[in-house]
Amino acid sequence: MNDIIESVKNLSIGFNSQKGKQISILRNVSTNIKKGETVGIVGESGSGKSTLALAMMGYIKQGLFPLKGECLFKSEDLLKMSSRQLEKIRGRKIAMIPQNAGQALTPNLKIGYQIDEALKLHTDLNKTERDKKISELLNKVRLPSPETMAFRYPHELSGGQQQRVAVAMALAGKPDLLLLDEPTTGLDVTTQAHVLELLRFIAKDTGTSMIYVSHDLGAIAQVSDRIVVMYAGEIVLEGPARKILKEPIHPYTYGLLKSIPKLSLAGLPASMPGSQPQPGSINEGCSFYDRCNLATDNCKKNSPDLEHIKELDTNVRCFNYKELINQNNNLQTSITKKSNNSEANEVLKLKDVSISYAKQKFFDQLLNKISDQNPTVKDINIDIKKGETIALVGESGSGKSTILKSIAGLLKTKDGQIKFENDRILSSDLKMRNPNDLRAIQLIFQNPDESLNPNHTVEQILSQPLKLYFNLSGEELKKNIIDLLKKVRLGEFYMSRYPRQLSGGEKQRVAVARAFAAKPDIILCDEVTSALDVSVQAAVLNLLQQLKEDLGTTYVFVSHDLAVVRAISDRVAVLYQGRLCEIGPSQNVYKFPSHPYTEVLLGAVLEPDPDIKPKLVAEDIVEEKPPEKGCSFQGRCPRKIGDICNSEVPPWQIGENGNAIRCHINIEELASLQQ
Amino acid sequence: MLLLILKRIGLGLITLFIVSLITFVGVEVLPGDACTTYLEREAYGAALDACIKRLGLDVPAYERYLDWASNVVRGDFGYSLSGEMPINEVLGPRVKNSLVLASVSILIGIPLAIVLGIITALWRDKLPDIMISTITIFSMTIPEFISATLLILIVAIWLGWLPGIVIIPSDATFYELLSNIILPVVAISMIMTAHMARMVRSSVIQVMASDYVQMAILKGVPYWKMVFRHVLPNALLPAINVVALTIAWLLGGVVVTEVVFNYPGLGRLVIESISNRDLPVVQALAIILASIYVGINLIADLMTLMLNPRLKSLQIRK
User: Which residues make Cβ contacts (< 8 Å) with residue B119, sequence separation at least 6?
Assistant: First the structure.
């Protein structure tokens, strides 16, 4: 028993609703953290995982309070401690690495000061020793030039660097337990893989216990020894990482794993029906009852207890888990999608498109032109066929959303043309486009919370495009709205709802319905699934595919998630710093040979499988501007061959698989290098 | 950085130029001119001609503007009509009086507002917040002419502690002024402090809810240290611009309060010169008030730039 660092016993945390009812967010949670162990807590948004993690530091968010149970750290209850006592434990015994380091570092204090503050509070080192220690810590988290780094402000660092500073700050007090709350969410794929690598190294090096909270099973799989799966405020499954990820015996975990798109699989992931219940809405029975395909009448009336299964070393909260044992080989399946016919005509052509964010100089304004030798997006040539799904992939700053905006007419192009239907040039100025062209190209945004007017009902939201483009009114308008809702699998009663009364997935469905209301030819999807939970993401992807097969719509799909892109797209274009690196049919882009940048991106993808480790081939430096000459990827390329990369723009080479790669290395040589 | 300061100063000067044009044109367009106002019923025949000649009104308007503007740049506002004395002599003591009133109000009001704002934010929805917030909202909603009159009624008339109105010559010394300005200062501070305290309160509450404050707590930073190092510097930054506007408003003359207390400041001079149709003084006041606003806002912008590391390095990088 001595090796247990922290144990949570029957913890319930909740709030008082406006009607005076007690509503719990965490229900009867018990778990133990052992010395030197890394525990992953996984769950979708609203599952209570962050509340649990914060409670393990004795911190309860405003408005919430503990209903019962305790959090024992070395057999002392953190929830009963005074703030004086907690100050002695936080940062010294238990330290936190926050989700978004950019916002968790105080903006007016230098990095060095913030680390020094932790050292002053939790060690008895003197000033010179502390200064030395700060350099040491910054070095340990592999930040460049630690001496000058200490004098920088948080905003002067990139996202990955900020996260490293947060790690250094947490290590300052030499804690026994590190709490990580989604530490890599919001970082680019390559940065994320590097930070995870660092965390794994630190866990091994210092023997610190870690609690890793995330919605991302891919990240959890890379670091955890043990995994706790949360659903609706309860632990539903708990056990060794490998067991949970490879042979999940709870239907929720099983469904969750199946709904994650995987790099190795073409086709769409299977989706789970429904969404997580709201806190307080479950009175009796199993909280997963509504979405479970193993559910029986017993599940509706009685809620299962967390049952320990000795032979699997696992705790599970399900009456029917036995049905899932030995069923798990079909985790690696996906729904095949119909491919478009490649004979179709081109519907949209981007020809030599360049886009600049540079401010117009005074004289250029007069002449209505932009003079920028090094524009954000340059020389984009893509022909899009009718009915295909083409994906634009790249990290943040790759220009993928910029291109989308200029297709939509929201951003003016600097050079080049956007041609629509029979090579007719679309004006780059939105006001100059004719109404029919505006109707034909629709946009779905990343975050439905921001793209749907909170003061409009679903009926009002959907009626706007119908009135604007088709002049519908009265009964006909209503019939069309109901049809649209049916298309996105929402019932008629949703018409009177406001966006705030819908779940994230339902909101995105309304946004999809709004785009389809215009009967568009092309739909531009800007990271449409990145704000959604995995199980909901799978459902939205399936919906988009279904609509496309029924209506023959063309999608331009922007995403940073290579696995999602693999699942939905027919063709992929990989972008770095606003320049195309590679373009080709998606099954070929994911095969070798590929552009060195595609190789880096693919290597950094985290799969929900502890046996597949990411391959880190390039540094995760952030470049602020594309290079003036030569190859756009010269700064980070692991396969750079020499001066030619810095001075000359590489030529296009077309491989036998049909993917085009822009690289100075001969394509066959590239293939043999990457084997 | 230097370039930016120069740019801002340049913009300020352009603003002042436009203001001077507008006031000059405004005065020009009004029916009648300085002479008809001055001579009133005698404004005809030889007397009018003589007056026009004397004041130089017979030259074209743009020449007069250039003449006037070049004098203003040299610090000479010309002559007032009603007193027939140099405007500089009229303005001097008024500016001084307004400065005294404003600086005393600022010295008392701003620190008080910040302290009250912080207290209400830190004890949000607890007794100190409820009490202070009620009082501030109360004093914010009462118009100043009512609160000023009530102050006179209670303190000066019923209790007889202080003089109700300021009966001092406009060129009184600082010490003579001081005992006389207590009531005006209280009346002004009531409104000003209330406004600013509310501002500071919401700003502090917003910062207290931020991720970095939660992080500081979870790092084990003691409460008051966290408040002073992590919360206040970030919360008070946006307050600088509000403080600047308040100072400009105070220096520009708190018209109503000055009139109620009969205080010889700039605000009352504005009213007086308008009702006397003393157009040269009105023009001079417009320029002076505009310069105060432009100047104070310039200082506030520069201070925000200096204190906010985010903006500072942004400028340097450019």
Answer: B128, B129, B132
Q: Do A87 and B216 touch (CB under 8 A)?
A: no
pLDDT at B318: 34
List the one residue out of A53, A73, A80, A51 whose CA is nearest residue A64: A51
Closest residue of chain A to B229, computed from CA coordinates:
A109
Indicate the residue of A87, A105, A166 with minimum beta-carbon distance to B222. Answer: A87
Domain count for chain B, please give it: 2
Q: Which of B126, B213, B215, B226 to mutate to test the interface with A (most CBs of A within 10 A)?
A: B215
Is the peptide bond between A183 and the residue preceding it cis, with omega within 30 degrees of 0? no
Which among A86, A88, A108 has the least Cβ separation from residue B234?
A108
**Residue pLDDT, tens place only, B9-54:** 888 889 888 988 888 888 777 766 666 666 666 667 777 777 777 7
Distance of CA B271 to the CA centre of its chain: 16
Judge if B102 and B162 occupy the same domain.
yes
Q: Which domain holds residue B57?
A: 2-73
Q: For A571-588, what is the mean pLDDT?
A: 90
B174 and B69 within one domain: no
Domain that holds residue A415: 340-523
Q: For residue A236, which of A200, A273, A277 has the smallest C-alpha distance?
A: A277
Closest CA to A304 of A199, A234, A396: A234
Tens digits of residue pLDDT in A477-500: 999 999 999 988 888 889 999 998
Q: Which of B219, B233, B313 sits opposite A91 (nearest CB)?
A: B219
Q: Which residues pair with A384 in a beta bridge?
A: A348
Q: Which CATH number belongs to the domain containing residue A384 in this structure?
A: 3.40.50.300
Token pair 């925000």 is found at B304
List, for residues B281-297, the tens digit of each pLDDT value: 888 888 888 888 888 88
Residues of B in contact with A86 (CB under 8 A): 220
In a domain, B85, yes or no: no
| B100 and B241 assigned to the same domain | yes
Across the interface, whether the CB atoms of A173 and B220 are under 8 A apart is answered: yes
Minimal-distance CA residue of chain B relative to A104: B212
> d(Cα B158, Cα B150) in Å, to the nearest integer?
10
**B162 and B46, same structural domain?**
no
Q: How many domains does chain A have?
A: 1
| Residues of B at the A interface, defined by Cβ within 8 angstroms | 209-212, 214-223, 229-230, 233-234, 237, 307-310, 313
Task: Evaluate if pTM is beyond 0.90.
Answer: no
Give chain B positions within 8 Å (CB) of A95: 218-219
The verdict on A78 touching B (C-beta cutoff 8 Å) is no
Residues B48 and B190 in one domain: no
pLDDT digits (tens, 9 = 90+) for A609-650: 888 888 877 777 667 778 888 898 888 888 888 888 988 889
Task: Tell me which residue of B95, B72, B63 sits closest to B19, measured CA to CA.
Answer: B72
**In this structure, are B179 and B134 located in the same domain?**
yes
In this model, does residue A371 exceed pLDDT 70? Answer: no
The answer on pLDDT for A192 being more than 50 is yes
Residue A244: name the closest of A39, A54, A45 by CA: A39
Residues B21 and B162 occupy one common structural domain? no
- Does B132 map to a domain? yes
Residue B86 domain flag: no
- Does residue A29 belong to any structural domain of this protein? no
- CA nearest B208: which of B282, B291, B117? B117
Whether B43 is in a domain gets the answer yes
CB A374 within 8 A of CB A626: yes
The answer to whether residues B8 and B104 belong to one domain is no
Contact A87 B211 (CB under 8 A): no
CB pairs under 8 A between A and B: 80
Question: pLDDT higher for B145 or A132?
Answer: A132
Instruction: Tell if the CB–CB gap between A104 and B223 is shorter than 8 Å.
Output: no
